[in-house]
Amino acid sequence: MSMTNKEYDRLVKQRQPASPMGKNIIWAFCVGGGICVLGQALSGVYQDWGLDKEQSGTAVSLSLIFAAAVLTGLGVFDDIAKRAGAGTLVPITGFANAMVSPAVEFKTEGFITGTATKLFQVAGPVLVFGISASVVYGLILMLLQRV
Predict the structure, then answer these.
(1) For site-directed labelling of 73, which of 23, 63, 117, 147 has its Cα 20 to 30 A away?
(2) pLDDT tens-place string over residues 67-100
């Protein structure tokens, strides 16, 4: 059977189930908001333990990264993400998941050629461009301060 691209697109659209957009938006909002509420609660706990606001922010970041990495390693984060969609993309938890997922997926290829190599598959470009941008912005700031 020969089809054009337009005919194929029309066939796919006819057979594709409708996406419950409203439900997806509500789930994403609730899960993303829940992660943020958890972070705020942790901040309060860390401040009660004697950390100042900046130190508690750092501790919250580390806690959320650690939790997301452990949950990804256990396969729980993916189950949450299937249901919550974009709600799990709160930057810290989403980045931790993006780093750990390839490492877990390729662990059968060995520690060096699998896990260690794939660990920076996503993080590598982010780090390169983040560091490069910070250098450029720093140089611009330095030049503007001298003028």
Answers:
(1) 23
(2) 998 998 888 988 888 888 888 877 788 878 877 8
The residues near 68 (Cβ < 8 Å, ≥ 6 apart) are 77, 92, 93, 94, 96, 97, 100
Map tokens 């990495």 to a residue.
Answer: 69
Give every CB contact of residue 39 below 8 A, 6+ residues apart in sequence.
60, 64
Q: Write down the pLDDT at residue 110.
A: 66
Domain ranges of the chain: 21-146
Length of the chain: 147
**Is pTM, for the whole model, over 0.70?**
no
* Interatomic CA distance for residues 64 and 43, integer angstroms: 11
DSSP state, residue 147: -
